[in-house]
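--- STAGE predict ---
source: upstream dedup step, 1 unique chain passed
mode: sequence only
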Amino acid sequence: MADGSDSTLTADRPAPPPSDLVAGIRSFAAGHGGAKAVIEYVGRRGARIVLVGQDGAWADQFADDTDVARRACESAGVEVENEWERELMEQMRPSNDLWRSMARRSLAR
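--- STAGE serialize ---
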């Protein structure tokens, strides 16, 4: 045996993303004909994953950091956009409840 051949070098592999996060992303995509994601860094809180369904519905999930968010989307089979593209924003359809909540916020100012 050659000197030093008794040990193997292993690369540090990142931990898999939380299964409940992957399941939530996968469930949203399945319920809306597929989805795309945009990942936003939100400081100490981690990363926000904004999911936009093919039908225009949208939702968000939170991850510990952007790397976990990317791995979760990859595991769920959801494509990650690098930024908010015009086409993706035009695809989003806010619900009536969201419009009402935004109106209440502006009136309260």
